[in-house]
What does this fold into?
Amino acid sequence: MTPEEEEAIRREFEASRKEAHKQERPQQSQGPDGFELNMFSQVKHVIGIVSGKGGVGKSLVTGILATELMRAGKSVGILDADITGPSIPKMFGISSQRIAAMDEHLLVPAVTDGGIKVVSTNLILEHESDPVLWRGPLLMGVIKQFYEDVYWGELDYLLVDMPPGTGDVALTVFQSLPIEGVIIVSSPQDLVQMIVGKAVNMAAMMEVPVIGLVENMSYFVCPSCGEKHELFGPSAAQETADHFGINMLGRLPIDPAIAKVCDAGTIERHLPAHLLDGALEAITGRDA
Ligand SMILES: Nc1ncnc2c1ncn2[C@@H]1O[C@H](COP(=O)(O)OP(=O)(O)O)[C@@H](O)[C@H]1O
Ligand SMILES: [Mg+2]
It folds into this structure.
């Protein structure tokens, strides 16, 4: 990131913070109408996975949580709202599946080996590598269809892998889906506080509770000496969470084995257990 870009983000952050304080609780009526599920679908909890910027591991965290919830016997769906950069299908090895139209109004999601239902733009494109060159209104229409027109059936959890940042699509998801809470994902590089702050402020402005923070790529365990190295310096995640008054839910190491199962599409079968127990408890604890 150049100093100019850094300065631009800093200014934007300050402006959004001021705006958040000024507005306190913005009117929900400003947004589009709430989206509604079809009569064949019931979802108990809709949870968003967000980050202030791309490439921090949002999709990975979505994939891990979905896998662990499924392993715990919950019925799970993933709405891949990262329309222009979808990565969920590959992680679950379902890239060759296509979302089918059941009739004029109902779409059948792809289903993973473990039974997780998935919708993603990659599952409607002819070729996985086709770029998505759609403008805002169309993107928002896709989110609406992915929520309203999909035959989700009965789900305990619908995880929404949000697009990075605070653009149109993220706004639509926040304003139109009944998001019960969001998990913020960060990585331990510079500007963590500012980038997490963006996500925290957006959630506050949209009146969506923050479930907590997960830090990805937090450290590396050396395979030969077993020592834990914090490659980007000491983690500021706990401090950041404290600063914003949100819960610290866990830290994920940089682990080539994790990258490998994601690349191979075998996350459900080969993901090591207990990677994100804190986040999992925070989610399932909401059932009580
Ligand atoms: N903790 C990790 N260890 C190893 N590889 C990781 C880790 N987190 C993410 N990656 C890899 O980094 C890339 C970006 O992660 P991804 O979850 O797609 O980010 P985002 O959804 O935030 O853009 C992916 O190829 C993923 O496999
Ligand atoms: Mg992603």
